[in-house]
Amino acid sequence: MKKILAGMLSLMPFFADAQSLPRRSFLGIQMENITEDVKKLIGITENYGVLINGTVPGSTAEAAGFKKGDILLSINNEQIRNVQEAINIVAAQKRETEFTYELLRDRKKVKGKSTMKPYPSEKYTGIITEYTEVKTATGLQRVIITKPEGDAKLPVVVFIGGIGCYSLDMPFDSTSSEVQLLNKIARAGFLVARVEKPGMGDGVGFSKKCSEISFMEEKDVYVQAIRDLKLRPDVSTDNVHIIGHSMGGVMAPLVAMETTVKGIVAYGTIGSNFIEYLLKTRRTIGEAYNWSMDETDTYVKDACECASYYFINKMTTEEAAKKKAICGEYLSVFDLRSRKYNDELYALNLPALWKPFTGKALLVWGRSDFISAREDHEILAETINKAHSGNATLALVNNADHGMNYAADFSTALNNPGKYNPEVGETILTWLKANS
Amino acid sequence: MRKQFFIALLLVAITGKAAVPAFQTFVSSFVVGYRELHIPEIGYGYRDYFTAIPGAEQLDRQEAFFKKYEEGLAAYKRAKLSIPDRVVYDHLAYEVAFNLQRIKLEKEWVAAGREMPQGGLSGLNNIATWYPLFVQRFTTVSMPPGDVLAFGEQEVRKVKSEIATLQEQLGFSDSATFYMHLNSETFFITDKEQLLFSFEEIDKWVRQKLSAFIGTSDVPLIYAMEWPEATAFTPPGIYLNRADNAYGKDVFQFNFYNGRYNKRAMEWLYMHEAIPGHHLQFSLQHESNSLQDLFFYPGNFEGWACYVEYFGKDVGLYSDPYMYLGKWEWDLVRSVRLVLDVGIHYYGWSREKALAYWKKAVPNQDDIAEREVTRVTDWPCQALSYKMGAAQIFKMQKWWQQQHTGSPLSDFRKAFLAFGRLPLPVIEKNIS
């Protein structure tokens, strides 16, 4: 095997290029849906297209000459009906390839051709960003690494995001909580890895969408990503930590069962069975909305009934809605992930997942987080400490919401949250330094 | 060239100082230097503001820059400048003084460890100096906290008295029945076409009376449209100049959340967002200079839009007492915000106390209490810009009337708008 590799060295640049995951295509427009009011205002009759509000400097759209006020009607003859469709169509377009487009400019149709540019890279002072990948059964996924320059072996932090199908690739949002938190950790001397969810960001080769994969399939991605990271020469293999945000905190102990990690930070996570979690947090949601106790009680009761239909009786959202109409609204959030994902999640005994974990754990709850429950963090800390005395630390951060943003209370967190609360980063980094 | 160099040398020899550059050159160098400092733009959220405060080294650079221009300004005699240059001089002096005070406080805050205040500004060391800085930042007016409270309470009393008078005129002796009536479905428009048509009608009436109001009726078309994806937390309306939207037209958007719009909020909203409010001010805007382009002052443009709302009857509106009532209903919200602002940020009111004050002061609007207290808490002094700005314009108007007996108010308004969106004290000093 070594001989074969040696013989291929001269081809390595090509080989590496062929294997490496390219950046996705980047159209670079701000856009809005065309409502009936907008149609009337600008005097068009077309029933499709999106209105361009602006173009991003250096983007494909700018190079193609798209202008504010243009209506993007189609790409490669595929009609665009709304913003989401535009995003999907651009995502399907390979970078560095030619594409055709049709615009409506000053009520006249304009056709053209351009070449799709790649998505920009994140660049920060004091740290470098690398775009690596992990190959898994579900496809080729992006792993974004930020670290100090140099070849030194570094302690590692792997970030696992929440339940939603979203990307952690954020070149245009350096103020996001995730970027602020992870850059702070990288600048403190850690190699930080953001593992994308299947099918999100630059990922390719997926037979299923992110919304279709199961909980365990997603978990496998994180396991494989950590195994790959441990092969890097700049990684201190016995010094790997996971930060699990929200549902990422449920993934973390499962991942740790398959690949050793030194510690886990779980922020705004779940620590009791899923229905109990749902009911506890329906109360805090009621507080955030400032509902009266009797309104909240009805909400909790209805949520209890709906959750039973879905998770215990295994009904679909539509079937549950036939039993009780409001279930259609309450359960629709679960349809953002697959049936199997939700069933596998519900089957877990969360304290039991943490019991065998022998590493250190930091359970962090923001006091304005109405989406997760303080009690769940206490349950997990107690579970771990009973099994392995002193291994778990519970930290409560003032004025922090579920997204790690400033919010004085539940109501502010719902209505008008601020930006990233650096106290979250301070709490986590202090603990990581002590445990690395 | 040689000659100029010689003269410059001679001047140095005689005065011991370099020659004073032409005033315009001095201002241009300020604009270039200011841009290079990358001072964050004014924002509403105080947490973002404190987070963006740079480190001590950068603040020292800012301080040296403004001190240099403070000294530089002293080399010019204001009275010897042309009239337009005097306005620029006052504007520059305003910014220099404001920024030196800002930097002083920011340096103290950074040196003390950058502790983020929670639940408003009241926890800041030296709040007695910080609060007036925030007041000035948003209103451009200097007013001690005690006076902000007194003004707010006085306005609440005045507006409630106006509402009580209207209640009586409308034949409601008891408030419970009155507010039950105001909540009835008859006041809510659910047909958007009807709402758009009504806004068009209002536009026609206002334009007919505009010449007497402002001395011109030549204001570009303005279009009403639904605010896309508005929620219960979206404000009642917003003005979008054609430069700020993709429609190629000047528009104002109204909040049609849940397919409902309160009829009583049609006329004052049109006046505020469209004509003679924001749209008229932006349309009549005289050419801005590079110094003006660096800054924006909510006390000026929100003050103007709030000021015009009091003149609905002069532009053919408020003939329906319920429309006039709608103006006062929203004025009450704005007045209560004044009290809440100084209460929360200066006097350290708890959220509970702020909510209790709202519920006592604002009948019939419990549903927005949480939203309003959150807004005032998170955006210190932003809510002052409307009423304090308007009060300052009324003060100027009163002075103008005393000085120009018999001159129509439209002359004052034209003169005011001709300055562009400057700090109100700068306009006040120069409007004569």
- Helix count of chain B equals 18
Q: Describe the main β-sheet of chain A briefly.
A: 8 strands, mixed
**Helix content bin of chain B:** 55-70%
The fraction of residues in strands of chain B falls at under 5%
Stated plainly, the CATH topology of the largest domain in chain A is called Rossmann fold
Q: Order of strands in the sheet with the most strands of chain A?
A: 9-10-12-11-13-14-15-16
Largest interface: A-B, 26 and 26 residues
Beta-strand portion of chain A reads 15-25%
CATH class descriptor of the largest domain in chain A:
Alpha Beta
Shape of chain B: globular
Could you describe the largest sheet of chain B, including whether it forms a barrel? 3 strands, mixed
**Strand tally of chain A:** 16
What is the CATH superfamily of the largest domain in chain A?
Alpha/Beta hydrolase fold, catalytic domain
State the end-to-end CA separation of chain B: 41 Å
Task: Provide the number of structural domains of chain B.
Answer: 2
Question: How many domains make up the coordinates of chain A?
Answer: 3
Brief write-up:
The complex is a heterodimer of chains A (436) and B (432). Chain A is of the alpha/beta class and 436 residues long. Chain A has helices spanning 2-7, 12-19, 36-42, 60-64, 83-92, 177-187, 215-229, 248-256, 274-288, 293-312, 317-323, 326-331, 339-347, 350-354, 374-387, 410-415, 422-435; strands at residues 25-26, 29-33, 50-55, 71-75, 78-79, 98-105, 108-115, 117-118, 128-136, 139-147, 154-160, 191-195, 235-245, 263-267, 360-366, 392-397.
Task: Give a description of the structure.
The complex is a heterodimer of chains A (436) and B (432). Chain A is globular. Chain A is 38% helix and 22% strand. In chain A, helix 6 (177-187) runs parallel beside helix 17 (422-435), helix 7 packs across helix 8 (248-256) and helix 9 (274-288) runs antiparallel to helix 10. Chain A contains 17 helices and 16 strands. Chain A has helices at 2-7, 12-19, 36-42, 60-64, 83-92, 177-187, 215-229, 248-256, 274-288, 293-312, 317-323, 326-331, 339-347, 350-354, 374-387, 410-415, 422-435, and strands spanning 25-26, 29-33, 50-55, 71-75, 78-79, 98-105, 108-115, 117-118, 128-136, 139-147, 154-160, 191-195, 235-245, 263-267, 360-366, 392-397. Chain B is mostly helical and 432 residues long. Chain B has two domains: 2-139, no CATH class; 145-388, no CATH class. In chain B, the strands form two sheets. In chain B, strands 2-4-3 form a three-stranded mixed sheet, with helices on one face. In chain B, strands 1-5 form a two-stranded antiparallel sheet. The model of chain B is unreliable at 1-17 (pLDDT under 50). The chains are: A alpha/beta (436), B mainly alpha (432).
